[in-house]
């Protein structure tokens, strides 16, 4: 079974500050995942702000290099791709960025982000054909070409800018789309339209999707499997139904319980975790990263970092509550632990 | 019944474009009572942020306020002088803009960002009093005192959003407008921030206009809700009534949209495209997408009318309540 894109035990440490007061941030710690060629799937990646989601996407795209571990594209280290391989990689792996304010050049009309890939990858034989292609892609995600093209980025709403990025990714019909919060700024109706489109891309064209989000509900709707990150570590991973319907890690349980229900008669549950959780900046070597917020903390939780326990065939959890299950290696994720189907 | 603290009457905000005016906010009328939590929902591009900015008279070219009134405690903010509106902003009506937390000044300490706004209004306040006020504000939004000396990049998203709240309440305004304050946060942090906002709202008795599109969040937080479609209000009512028995066909579809953890695999997007604002459909702007459209809908623009006490809807399917 060929693996298209794989992160193998990657760790990313950012250092900042001066020569003497260096601060290290462990954005990701020993994370593995693989996207296989044979079965195009949708993998959800969820976690709170700063948990390392965007860092993971940037590593997979080769924008940044891992501090430890490797990112492999069709078995070859991203760092060592030849020119041709790199071009192929750029076409086959597309990204939808989180912050639509950042990716646009304010001096170019938004058309630029659409016409550039059409030209670069020779998607159309003529200008008219290219324009048609672009208009189709825009309409598919609920944008009126007449009201979108020819405008500057600041003339569009946040959600409109975000959708242009979706249109761009879909134009290229890549093998993999890394979507970093593609719907965080749009309303429920458009969110449904966009997700439906992303799913179509998956089902019709066999495009695999990494769906990065903090929205568990949409992750549940669209994904086959899910990775829950907490402060850079995978705390729970596996089949989406299992993880969402019966979350095992205390953090995943908290996430599921915090979803606001669109029903005024069903009150938000009370939160028992401390409100002020400071950002950790150093690697926690001494125990579970969640121990400060965890209602189930045990003595061992403060001593050793928990490994991943495989609680059943399709799921693994990094928590001592499941210490009777067998320990699995992190890089088994996506190989031994994954969706049921 | 208490008098309204904020009254918006027939507010119109347009953008000048090469193809003519784009009517982003087209005749919005609504009101907020003191201490009320009002939610404004609507799809992306429906004019929510444009409206929020116009309420503060912060509309920037090519946008302009075409007409209407924004009465804050009786004072028309559209008419007052530039000098006067500056005094009102922050002190009486404060805005947490969309994406506020990413627009905190990266090279300025948190305490200075909070104190800056206060200083603008209370020029004579001594430094020690400013410092004290700043610490009170941090406590109100549940931030630790040591965070005063930090820079934005040292804080998490939830904490940054709390700083933005602290700034918004720094002069105890009567109205706070919060434009999607939590849409960049995860659900756990979102709930914590909203609980804090709720507590602050209660302790200050301030009215909140919460702008957003997360129906779940609205259901949990606001008392009344207004649904914006293509720059016009489609429906206004208590959140319970609007959720349990929506009247406008658009609201009905909107309520059915959010995916849940119960049923998987069904995305219920509203069919059709959002309307062209430069050249909106005739009659009811929603008619091309409406499942219940009648012949009248494409001809006559429905006005927002009260069909039950407190329930307003702009749709030809309903007739005005007889008084
Ligand atoms: N270039 C950088 N230099 C220093 N630290 C960084 C850099 N990029 C990210 N970080 C830090 O790494 C951690 C993970 O950040 P990342 O952006 O991956 O989080 P995220 O899960 O995408 O969060 P969000 O939901 O807010 O987008 C954070 O603590 C962040 O401050
Ligand atoms: N500077 C501008 N020039 C021209 N049109 C603009 C400008 N700013 C916004 N618009 C248009 O005005 C309409 C309303 O935009 P607005 O930002 O108010 O929407 P919104 O409801 O806040 O959307 P979102 O939920 O995506 O934030 C959109 O169609 C947008 O394209
Ligand atoms: S390992 Fe311990 S502290 Fe960590 S989540 Fe499990 S029970 Fe809680
Ligand atoms: Mg991110
Ligand atoms: Mg907006």
Task: Please give a handful of descriptors for the protein shown.
A: alpha/beta, 9-stranded mixed sheet, 4-stranded antiparallel sheet, B: 323 residues, 8-stranded mixed sheet, globular, binds adenosine-5'-triphosphate, binds iron/sulfur cluster, binds magnesium ion
**Total strands of chain A:** 13
Principal-axis shape of chain A: globular
Biggest sheet of chain B, open or closed, and with what strands and sense? 8 strands, mixed
Helix content of chain B: 25-40%
- Radius of gyration of chain B equals 20 Å
Distance between the termini of chain A: 16 Å
Distance between the terminal alpha carbons of chain B, to the nearest Å? 19 Å
H-E string of chain A: EEEHEEHEHHHHEHEHEEHHEEE
Strand order in the sheet with the most strands of chain A: 6-7-8-3-9-10-12-11-13
Radius of gyration of chain A in whole Å, from Cα?
Answer: 21 Å
Strand arrangement within the widest β-sheet of chain B reads 6-7-8-3-9-10-12-11
Question: Hey, roughly how much beta strand do the residues of chain A contain?
Answer: 15-25%
Tell me the β content of chain B.
15-25%
Outline of chain B: globular
Helix- and strand-based class of chain A?
Answer: alpha/beta
Largest interface (CB < 8 Å): A-B, 64 and 64 residues
- Estimate the helix proportion of chain A, in percent: 25-40%
Mind explaining what this structure looks like?
The complex is a heterodimer of chains A (341) and B (323). Chain A is α/β, with parallel strands linked by helices. Chain A has a domain at 248-341. Chain A contains 10 helices and 13 strands. Chain A has helices at 53-60, 83-92, 111-120, 127-140, 145-148, 158-171, 188-205, 216-222, 240-245, 250-257; strands at 3-16, 23-36, 42-46, 68-73, 76-77, 93-96, 176-180, 208-213, 225-230, 233-239, 308-312, 315-317, 326-328. A 9-stranded mixed sheet of chain A has the order 6-7-8-3-9-10-12-11-13, with helices on both faces. A 4-stranded antiparallel sheet of chain A has the order 2-1-4-5, covered by helices on one side. The radius of gyration of chain A is 21 Å and the shape is globular. The two termini of chain A are 16 Å apart. Chain B is α/β, with parallel strands linked by helices. Chain B has 9 helices and 12 strands. Chain B has an 8-stranded mixed sheet, with helices on both faces. In chain B, strands 2-1-4-5 form a 4-stranded antiparallel sheet. In chain B, helix 3 (110-121) crosses helix 4 (127-140), helix 4 (127-140) packs across helix 5 and helix 5 (157-168) packs parallel to helix 6 (187-204). The radius of gyration of chain B is 20 Å and the shape is globular. The model of chain B has no long low-confidence stretch (mean pLDDT 91). Chains A and B meet through helix 6, helix 7, helix 8, helix 9 and helix 10 of A and helix 6, helix 7, helix 8 and helix 9 of B. The complex binds adenosine-5'-triphosphate (ATP) (2 copies), iron/sulfur cluster (SF4) and magnesium ion (2 copies). Iron/sulfur cluster binds at residues 249-250, 288, 290-291, 294, 296-298, 301, 306, 319-321 of chain A.
